[in-house]
Amino acid sequence: MEVFKYAGVGDRWRQVEHSHTGDRRHAGSWFVKMALASPCGVLSDEDECGAVFESTAADIGALLRSQRFVSPLPEISVITPAADSQTPTKECGQVLSSLKSDVSRRGSADDGSEKLKVFLRIRPLTEAEKERGEEQGCVNVQSEDSLLLRAPKDSRNMKSAERGVSQSLHKFTFTKIFGPQTPQQEVYDHTIREMVRDVLHGENRLLYTYGVTNSGKTYTIQGAGGEAGLLPRALVSVFLKLSGRLYSAMDLKPVLSQEVRKLDAGEVRAEEMRRDALLKEEESTGGHHSRLRAGLSWDSGISGLSATSHIATQLEDSDGISLETNGLCLSGGEDLEEGVQFSVWVSFYEIYNEFLYDLLDAPPSLQSRKRATLRLSDDKHGNPYVKDLTWIQVQSAEEAWKVLKVGQRNQSFASTHLNHNSSRRLSVCDLAGSERCKTQPNGERMKEANNINTSLLTLGRCISALRHNQNNKSRPPLVVPFRDSKLTRVLQSFFCGHGRSCMVVNINSCASTYDETLQALKFSAIATQLVHGPCSKTRVAYILSLLREEPAHPNDTTLLEEDEEESEEEGDITMFDPEALLKAIDVLKREVLRQRQEKEELEAQVREEVCTEMMEVINRMQDDFSETLESERDLMEKRCENKINNLKSSLKKYYSQELEERDDEIRELTAALKEKEDGNIAPAPVFPPLSDVNGPRRSRRLASTHKRDTDHESVELIQCKAELEQCKAELDLKQTELRLKTLELKRFQENLPLTGITGNLTTTAERKLEEGQRNLKQLRMELQTLGIKLQSGERACCRNTDGEKLRHALSSADSKLAKQDQMLVELHTSLHLVKAELRKKDEMLAQYQRTQPPQPPMAPGSCKKRGCGVAVAYVENQPPEKRAFFRSLFPSRTPSKTPSRQRAEVTTPYTRVLRTRQPSPPSTPIQLRVKY
Ligand SMILES: Nc1ncnc2c1ncn2[C@@H]1O[C@H](COP(=O)(O)OP(=O)(O)OP(=O)(O)O)[C@@H](O)[C@H]1O
């Protein structure tokens, strides 16, 4: 049996208060645990199956949710707006009736799991509280399991309800509600009585109280004013039940979480000394107040006497707790396992500011030595236990109570472990009241209050997480934050299938603490939704179940038959002979293999499912990605097209504007130039007025800039014009010269036969051609120079002169020159051919002259005729275009000349050529400023 007190601020505060009034009482959190041990010292089959008191309440939250009332926390305890605003009573009645039916329906699940029991106890108001006007009807019991809270007018809840943030009416449903006048015995009967029985049958049970400070938690657990609470009643009940079954030796001690160790003689002696010292201490200090009064008989466990139906045992202590044992007799020990004895050990510890203190190992002087703290450890199964905790074996309820009193005197509260061979446990936890931090007078109290609230909050979070995991089994489970506080770690095993728990919610009906009470009830409403997990089977029970499930192995038949009589809970491993155990081992091995195979298959299946799902996800992602890519591409294309179009239109606009401007400029400049030329005066150029907003921008700009250079540019323009004229004249001259030369060449060709001396003629013609070529070359160079000058002149004139026209003229002159050049080359080639022909003819002539007798000299006419014939023949031998070429070379002016004159000229062709080679007029350097 284990009892601990979760110390709170309220305890200390009330201790001070009570010391003034002389009514010193304790409040806080108690945790009682029981363990049973068999005398053989071997673990029984139930050593892993603890006994826990669990609180269970009606599932109001789930019910409200099922009726689609609101969500999260409010849905648990807050009445819906509709119910609140319209006809509260009627609505509430409907809610209640549905809640009731649901509660009764859901009290125990089909799968054997049981809902957490949550009881509510309302303490009566004191006279002082009534005088203060605390009774405002805010707590209304509507039936034995439903409660209606009405927010008093000064409460925060009412204020927020007035703002429309929350509701002012709240309805809760519990497993059972104990009103202010409910006696302790009735509370005991409905709460812990069954639990004590379960503990003695090998279960773990936990009972804990929860509520605001000064709500009656300690009163419920411990009792006061002669009314024994649940704990002393449970103690008496246990010992009544175990009468005649107590194991008097002290050599079996609880260790770790649920184990039992056999002590040697020395250790037993030490344990005895410790217990004697504690009991002596209790007797020397307050023991005279704590006495046991037995009417007929009281089975202390030592005498081995059984309790009878006439027991009238009374336990009184300094708090005036008086315990009538009449209603505590469970039913005798017949239903307990035959031949099993029980050893009861108690321990008592306190959790204070997140530290654990052993209250049965108090320092000699509380003032002189700091109390040692205890550590929480886990056993190999992961169950937490308080390491190095003091355990005291007790043989009676009186001894147990004395031990608890010693612990209480060690300032706070404690826990008592009753150890049995099988380590079944009953735990009673008296939690500290939830505190309002702002009411705490100093820093130390504030720290305590914070720690208490943190622990209770963690408890709430654990319960919430457990509820979530139970309600959402398909989803990944939430981590239950048991390790976030010492309190929840201690309680952990009771929430994890190693037992059951029961919660008693204590409230008072004071209006001043209404808001805190509401919070406590909301918290309890979460707890009501918890379902106990199936109890974990004991090792032996598990083995037995396996053996029963093995019909395929005939060898196990004997074992199965043997076990048929035994229940799982009652199975004891020592009952089997070695042969049966070996068989069991074989069965277990097969079971291990089977489970391993099952798990492997499951893993493979899970992997396959995961792979399929992943592939689906990947495919979906791929499709999505392709779609996105496609749309992105379209978008980009559209954007690019738009950009290009924009660019095009802006370029078009820009260049058209630019062209317009230039045209305007040219027009303006031309007009200005013309004006200058006409007037030969240099007035200011006529630009459009600056004020003319319709005029081109560039013109306005130019007007402003050109105004400054007007005179200078006028001079330049005149010069430029003169130079251009000169260039034109020069070009004409050159062209004339070229024409003359061409003509001379023609004449020369025509006169060739007349010379009679072909060798000299060709040589002369060749020389003349070369000379003509040189002249043309020089002419071209001069023209090029002229063009360059013209270009620079145009540039200098800022494109405002007739440079364009000049350039065109020059380029056409260039092309003409190039054509003439080409013609000369062709002429040169023709001359070479003529020369070759003439040489041939000369040779033939010479040969003919050698063979023929000498003839009289030929008349000039005949000579001319022959020469003409040669010339014609030559022309006829040329390709058709060449004939055209020659026609162009010999212009039609020649026929106008008389043959005699031609002849006269032709007779001196060389001199004519020389005459035409007049030195070309020196090309004076021209300063042109042409701007392109
Ligand atoms: N059902 C009841 N009948 C009569 N008196 C009661 C009852 N419940 C509580 N009281 C009295 O109310 C006072 C406060 O109760 P108690 O000390 O148990 O509160 P608590 O919840 O334990 O406070 P804390 O959280 O501070 O420990 C005590 O004087 C107690 O005797």
Automatic annotation (TrEMBL):
The keyword Cytoplasm applies. Residues 762-789 form a coiled coil. One of its GO terms (biological process) is mitotic spindle assembly. One of its GO terms (molecular function) is microtubule binding. Residues 891-901 have a biased composition (Polar residues). InterPro entries: KIF11-like (IPR047149), Kinesin_motor_dom (IPR001752), Kinesin_motor_dom_sf (IPR036961), P-loop_NTPase (IPR027417). CDD domains: RBD_KIF20A. It is found in: Cytoplasm, Cytoskeleton, Spindle. Its main location: cytoplasm. PROSITE patterns: KINESIN_MOTOR_2 (PS50067). The keyword Secreted does not apply. Residues 677-712, 890-932 are annotated as: Disordered. Gene3D superfamilies: Kinesin motor domain. It comes from the Eukaryota. ATP binds at G211, V212, T213, N214, S215, G216, K217, T218. SUPFAM superfamilies: P-loop containing nucleoside triphosphate hydrolases (SSF52540). One of its GO terms (cellular component) is spindle microtubule. Keywords: ATP-binding, Coiled coil, Cytoplasm, Cytoskeleton, Motor protein, Nucleotide-binding, Phosphoprotein. Residues 115-530 form the Kinesin motor domain. Pfam families: Kinesin. Belongs to the TRAFAC class myosin-kinesin ATPase superfamily. Kinesin family. PANTHER family: KINESIN FAMILY MEMBER 20B (PTHR47970:SF29), KINESIN-LIKE PROTEIN KIF11 (PTHR47970). This is Kinesin-like protein KIF20A. It comes from Anabarilius grahami (Kanglang fish). The lineage of its organism: Eukaryota, Metazoa, Chordata, Craniata, Vertebrata.
